[in-house]
Model the fold of this input.
Amino acid sequence: MSDMNKVNRLIKLFCSNTSGVLSTITNNTIKINLLTSEAFDFDKVQEEIELPGVMLTMNFSGDQNFQPLLLAPKKLVAVLADLMMLGDGDVDYFPDEHNEAVQEMFNQILGSLSSELSGEGITLSGTVTQVELTDMEIQKDFLEDNTMSRLSTEVIGQEFHLYLFLDSFAETSAENLFAATEDEDEAEPTVPSSGGAPSPQRSAAAPLSDGPPINVSRPQFSEIDEARSSVTGNSNMDLLYDIVLPVTVQLGSKEIKIKEILEMGQGSLIELDKTAGDYVDLIVNGKKFAIGEVMVADDNYAVRIVSLVSRKERIKSLGD
Done:
C-alpha cells in the first residue's frame, strides 16, 4: 500500500511551484490547491471537467523515473496562454497555439520543481513530452488502477479543476524520492564524549532532560495577503525588464541558388521580394512582432511602427 503522505508531499510541491511560476508569467495571483487524492473515477472527472480536455504527459528522470498525467480544462489552458501574452484571458481555445504555450509554461514549472528538490538533495528533472486534446475514451481504460489527485485554482474570477493521475509505479517512485532523505534526517551522528568513547549526539528535537517528549512540527504560516503577492509578482517581472533582445529590421528576402551566389561579384544586385516604399518586418529574438515604415531621424535610419502582430500570432510563434 502506498504511503500517501510522501506521495502528497510531492504533489504539494508540484502545486506550490505551479502557483509561483504561473503567478509570475501571467502577472496574476494564481494558487493551485490539492483537494483530494482517491482512486480513479471517470464519472467524477466528467462532472468537473468538460471533455475533451487537455492532457499533459510529464516525464521525470533522475533518482526516480516515472510518468504522471495532468488533465486540464481547455478553457483554463486558453486563459493562461492569453494572460502569458499580456491579454485579458477572454479568448476561445485554439489547440495549436494554446497547447504549445501551456507546454512551455509547465516545462518552466517542472524546472522550478527540480530546483527546489535539489535543495533537499534529490535529483529529479521533468519535461512535458506531449500535450493533446482528448475525450479520454482511450486513456480511461489504462487509468483504472491509478490514483487521481483533484486540484483546484481560480483565475481571473473563474474556478477550475484539474486532475493529476499517478499509477502505482509513479507512487512508489514518489515514496522512494523522500525515503532516502528521511533516513538521513533520522540518522543520529555521534560525537566524542568526555571519556573518549563516541556517544549519540542529541538531535534538535530531543529533550534536554528527563521528562515527556517534545512534539516538533513544521511551522504553520498564514496566507500571504493579495497586496503582498502582487508586489512579489511585480518584483519578479522587474527582473525581466533589463534582458536585452536583438531587434532586426527585415527589408525583404530572396532564395538564390548556390551557383548564383558563387557567380556574384562587386556591384552585383539582389532583387528582394519587396518593392521600394513597402513596409518592413520588425523581428525580436527571431520572432516577427510588428510591421514598420523606414524613416530618417537625425541622419540615422529609424522605423516607425505601423502595426503590431496579434496576440494569437505571438502565441503561435512560441512553437516556431
In short: Residues 12 and 34 are 7 Å apart (CA to CA). The chain has two domains: 4-180, 247-256+270-317. The domain at 247-256+270-317 is CATH 2.30.330.10 (Surface presentation of antigens (SPOA)). The first strand starts at residue 33 and ends at 39.
